[in-house]
């Protein structure tokens, strides 16, 4: 039995990541006995726009320094589009920068990101073609599609729900997702990204969505949880949490 402190860097308006990631890790805890506590630092962002996302990225170092004071064991930059909107491969530079920032203040821990975790998780599943659902406006969804394809994964289809208020994204009803996913073109797809956004609630919809599409399903939140656990060497398969948690 181990005790871990998990640090989350979240947008100031995020209301989902601090519920879905702890829930996945609670399920793991029930299997392994490991215990997890969660500690967040927030970066200002209310509207999902290019300007606010860039400003949030610039503020991330300050948030890392604050989390380092809590002596966490790992950190996750929990905003997928903030990184993907910066251009192909941006998660590598940002993770490296923030890891160095944490080490510079005496807390040498891994800093992972939701963007990097989604890419790594899709590669872990061997997915070469995916279909995705996002809450974003179409121009931001196009950036996410380009980013994923820049990592060697073709995007067969993408549905944009076109919500730019981040609080409103957090209020979207996850029970609608299985119905939305029916509209996706999944011909030839290897997996479905049910929520390419850490703020759009999706965890409880995964089993129903997998039944609809008959494909592996992953979300930004489950990918982030998987990456955090992998960094801690604390991964364990658990039910109803998507393809990355089937072992």
From TrEMBL:
It catalyses: maleate = fumarate. Substrate binds at residues 14, 79-81, 136, 166, 198-199. The active site is at residues 79, 197. The modification S-(2-succinyl)cysteine is found at residue 79. The keyword Isomerase applies. GO terms for molecular function: maleate isomerase activity. Coiled coil: none annotated. Keywords: Isomerase. Its EC number is 5.2.1.1. Belongs to the maleate isomerase family. Reaction is initiated by nucleophilic attack of cysteine at the double bond, yielding a covalent succinylcysteine-like intermediate. Homodimer. PANTHER family: BLR3294 PROTEIN. Catalyzes cis-trans isomerization of the C2-C3 double bond in maleate to yield fumarate. This is Maleate isomerase. It comes from Streptomyces wuyuanensis.
